[in-house]
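fwd from M.: "can u put these together and see what the complex looks like"

so here's what she sent:
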Amino acid sequence: MSQQVDQVRAVIWVEGALRLLDQRLLPLEQHYIVCTDVAGVAAGIRDMVVRGAPAIGVAAAYGVAMAVAARYAENGAGWRQAVEADLTLLAESRPTAVNLFWAIERMRALIEKLDGDPRQAVVAEACRIDAEDLAANRRMGELGAALIGARCAVMTHCNAGALATAGYGTALGVIRAAHAAGKVSQVYADETRPWLQGSRLTAWELLQDGIPVTLLADGAGAHLMKQGEVKWLIVGSDRIAANGDVCNKIGTYHAAITARYHGVKLMVVAPTSTIDMSLASGEEIPIEARDEDELLTFGGKQVAATGARAWNPVFDVTPAELVDAIVTERGVVLQPNAEKMAALMVE
Amino acid sequence: MSQQVDQVRAVIWVEGALRLLDQRLLPLEQHYIVCTDVAGVAAGIRDMVVRGAPAIGVAAAYGVAMAVAARYAENGAGWRQAVEADLTLLAESRPTAVNLFWAIERMRALIEKLDGDPRQAVVAEACRIDAEDLAANRRMGELGAALIGARCAVMTHCNAGALATAGYGTALGVIRAAHAAGKVSQVYADETRPWLQGSRLTAWELLQDGIPVTLLADGAGAHLMKQGEVKWLIVGSDRIAANGDVCNKIGTYHAAITARYHGVKLMVVAPTSTIDMSLASGEEIPIEARDEDELLTFGGKQVAATGARAWNPVFDVTPAELVDAIVTERGVVLQPNAEKMAALMVE
């Protein structure tokens, strides 16, 4: 079973190059874009070839490794200074997912300690980040599945799956583990406008694993929850503030309010690399706004009236008070608050 | 100004034929389908050439008029009995909007009283239903706009505009009137998946009137309301139960829960023909489920993973406790309940 699960890999390092599964083309095409330099990786993150906070972090780590190799080959003495421009380029590729900055900082910390030829060491560190993310997901899968009691339907938003991580997934890792344990009768997935990560990515991933999945319009979540079948809303996160506020794909906050109204519990599944203890609350998290055309057009075709404007923030913040559990690889935080988050992070 | 507003007409009766603006093609094409018999009208309702509860009612009334004319021409004695099959055909075209059944019943009540050639009388009655709906919308526009205090942004869901009625609109009628009174700084419209009535219809209508409109993904409503600019969520309805529960486009209930969470008020604008006193609560309202392909494909192109299933209820029910005001042509019901609804309907 674990082999099957590992088949979906969004970020693959092969002999000095990074293969990114082009998630803009899924599910109709499975095509990998090969990045041979840091500019390619930054473009891949910016243009959403790769997406999902942990996957962005892993891709960025490999991007740093490629940048170091290139700068060292150019200039064996001044590479450390030269690579700073590459780290900035990567850091500017997307603003919200903190895993991006976390991975860059972790690579920078290594770089500062290196002597001699740095190339092997940076690749090894990127590979460690990759492997640790996969291991974290498996651990979170166990911890999260344990929170689910009687067999029930669960709901998810966006894609926090293998495609969004080094593999196995965060929210979908929990759903995979819970399904394997016989606890999941049905997965409901919001289609997740405007990018349709639910329809295009989550449904594809779960179908590959033989897990029953039913899509619904983002607005249908309340009507679904009213039916009583869904007991857990399970999502990933792009950044969690020190007080437990959770930033995730636009629509998560909407779904969280609705979940609370219906007594459906909200589980957020994210590795500790997603937790940003430098921000006191979610209000401080920068929210990326993407192009209006993501709403005004579809598949390159105009859908909205000519002249219409659109507001397209692609993340929102769910206050900690609406979160029942944050599941990390270090453990579970129930009813998160600043004190509990601090305790988790110093462990 | 009123001339400009009246330009958008979804249902037009011209010399014995019914012209239906094909709302599946908007905003890219403005094309009228000409219905010359009741079967054409029933198909137009079923296939959503015409949509919106009051517009469906008006179209059905003209459909009955055409049916009576055809049956009378065939058989001057037995037409009344023969037309029953046509009324059934119309009644089966869509299940949720009660205005459809209301219009058929009103036409049937007339038919039962008629002597001699019925043709002029049925056309006159359909025209009265049409004109009364337009007048009701203008009256509701005044009443609803009066509820809005200081200038603010408002939000709407789906299309409850001129396109959904005989003209001027219910929710958009209030927004038109409030905008004319200088009370609306901005209109936010949910795109309204799966059919995108917000992007395709509401934005088009409001732009024609020069009213500023900004579209957003259905899941972005909570994040928008959190900004504090929006003070009212204003929607139409397809059926209102005797206790004030409101059935409307899928996503309305989701938005209503979110509105209450943020202290945004919910105004439902609907003529009394939308109120179904025969149903004690919204739980009894039949909810239409449409084809899965409305979610799995887009513009005829596959978007979801092959093999994925979808759940596509196209209406939901907002309990009366979440409604701040129901605006009808007979008056406004604040904090609706069974007692207040009964008082409205006996007036």
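replying to her w this: The CA atoms of residues 240 and 275 of chain B lie 5 Å apart.
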